[in-house]
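Hi L.,

As promised, Uroporphyrinogen-III C-methyltransferase:
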Amino acid sequence: MDRMDDAPAYPVGLRLRGRRVVVIGGGQVAQRRLPALVAAGADIVVVAPRATASVEAMADAGELRWERRAYRPGDLAEAWYALVASTDPAANAAASAEAEERRVWCVRSDDADAATAWTPATGRTEGVTVAVLTGRDPRRSAAVRDAVVEGLRDGSLVAPQHRARTAGVALVGGGPGDPDLITVRGRRLLAEADVVIADRLGPRDLLGELPPHVEVIDAAKIPYGRAMAQEAINAALIEHAKAGKAVVRLKGGDPYVFGRGMEEAEALAAAGIAVTVVPGISSAISVPGAAGIPVTHRGVAHEFTVVSGHVAPDDARSLVDWSALARMRGTLVLLMAVERIGAIADTLIAGGRPAGTPVAVVQEGTTAAQRRVDATLSSVAHTVAEEGVRPPAVIVIGDVVTVGRSGAGRG
Ligand SMILES: C[S@@+](CC[C@H](N)C(=O)[O-])C[C@H]1O[C@@H](n2cnc3c(N)ncnc32)[C@H](O)[C@@H]1O
């Protein structure tokens, strides 16, 4: 073979299920390559006197067969593909020569020029395999791979699916507001959407990045009362999905945490529309965290309870057992509670929670407007009124509030 051959490699995707792949060597190179071979369903034989703990674990798990010995001529007899990566140069050369003789494509970790195949830098996201070869610059291959995979994941590289793309609705949890806190999947679906119906909360900055052809509907501006607005949102989701559009319902936090996500999923299912639910980072945990408050802390709180304060404790519609909450020592996280915090605090104190329990109110967490106001259970209603705290805010009650005072956080 011409060792100075500069012709580009011919890329191909090997379908290895059930086909023998022989790996000579059980060190770091083998360890790095084996998971992809296992994922491809190859019939893998590793020939090596010693192997790393990970390679050994794969053998123990039955993912490959490990022959604990040095290479012997004939090892490649049944192979379709070989990876030669031992620490013994003579064995590598001999195995490589056997591969050439048997016309088995062979990767060599110690001598790329002598190899008949090269391993590309690969990455996988949502059914797409990206494989990059740059000849003799593996770092550049990895950098290009990373750029493409990351771009596909976060939607900055827009390559909408065509064959696999199905019309339907994705209920996407957008996280608490910071556009960086949506999931990778949510971001990608947003980039592929034809229609986006967005809530007032969540990463609204992302809407400005959508291409002009995307129809953005502001759910907060649908001109009905609360119940009717939900009907109108459901109707809009169904109408656009039935028209063959890829629809994203972008919600704040997680769709299933006080987000009416299941109501929408049920309405869509009843209309025969495919629904994908993408979880999101809920404000219940992330907003306290952004303000430097851990909802649990060793030796301080072994539980946290997330409660909706959208109806007052004495309201007949309330499903919350406030007296049970008042007896608990752990962290209480209240959502939608700013307007009723006085009645809630009074109920907790009356039920036994100490009046001096620390409380923090975090408004518009994770956004540029984030602010934190501290109080105690007995003073919180007054503080909220005096400071003009407004929704959206998360209220945290419990000793965790003071834990992080000297620690990190935005507010
Ligand atoms: C209808 S609930 C939706 C909760 C959302 N599904 C979640 O998982 O975060 C709305 C409430 O979430 C809280 N919330 C959501 N985003 C917030 C943010 N960025 N800062 C403070 N509170 C927030 C507020 O208590 C607000 O009233």
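The chain has a mean pLDDT of 91.

Thanks again for sending the construct details.

K.
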